[in-house]
Amino acid sequence: MKETVKPILERAKTGTLSVIDFETGVPFGALVNVATDEQSHPIFLFSQLARHTKSLNADPCASLLVMELPQAGDALTGFRATITGRMEQVSEGLHARYVAHHPYAEMYAGFGDFGFWRMVPEMVYVVAGFGRIQSFRAEEVFA
């Protein structure tokens, strides 16, 4: 199962990013665009105006859920992975890779309030259908 995580993450266009809300202290989820760096770690382009970005500035802990839906039937039978870790703002080196995955982002990637972020994974939780659940340390998946 762990060998399936990187290819799914690399194909993913979107995911659900969950953070600790900076005002309320409760979990907050946001639909985000995602790409990967050369290690297949998730990378993002966020506006400083976004609630999830403000929350990450206060607490860098986050999780990202990515999934591939089955062709038909129950969505819960599809493959999904939740990656937990810490987010870091990155000043250079991600622009070309991100825009190659999300070409439409080119128009706002240079705006002053946007910046690139990378998730440094710590754990990966995989569900590959009913009863097929495993947890992995990040180094087992992203070695």
Low-confidence spans: pLDDT under 50, at least 5 residues?
none
Q: Whole-number average pLDDT?
A: 94
Overall 3D geometry?
Answer: globular
CATH superfamily: Electron Transport, Fmn-binding Protein, Chain A
Radius of gyration over all CA atoms, rounded: 15 Å
**Estimated share of beta-strand residues:** 35-45%
In N-to-C order, the SSE pattern is: HEEEEHEEHHEEH
Number of structurally distinct domains? 1
In the CATH scheme, the class would be Mainly Beta
Structural class: alpha+beta
Write the layout of secondary structure elements.
Blueprint: H1 2-11, E1 14-20, E2 27-33, E3 35-36, E4 42-47, H2 51-58, E5 61-68, E6 79-90, H3 95-101, H4 106-109, E7 114-127, E8 133-137, H5 138-141
Antiparallel strand pairs: 1-2, 1-5, 3-4, 4-7, 5-6, 6-7, 7-8
Structure write-up:
The chain has 143 residues and is an alpha+beta fold. The protein has a single domain (2-141), classed as Roll (Pnp Oxidase, Chain A), CATH 2.30.110. Helices cover 23% and strands 43% of the residues. The protein has helices at residues 2-11, 51-58, 95-101, 106-109, 138-141, and strands at residues 14-20, 27-33, 35-36, 42-47, 61-68, 79-90, 114-127, 133-137. Strands 1, 2, 3, 4, 5, 6, 7 and 8 form an eight-stranded antiparallel beta sheet that branches. It is globular. The chain starts with a helix and ends with a helix.
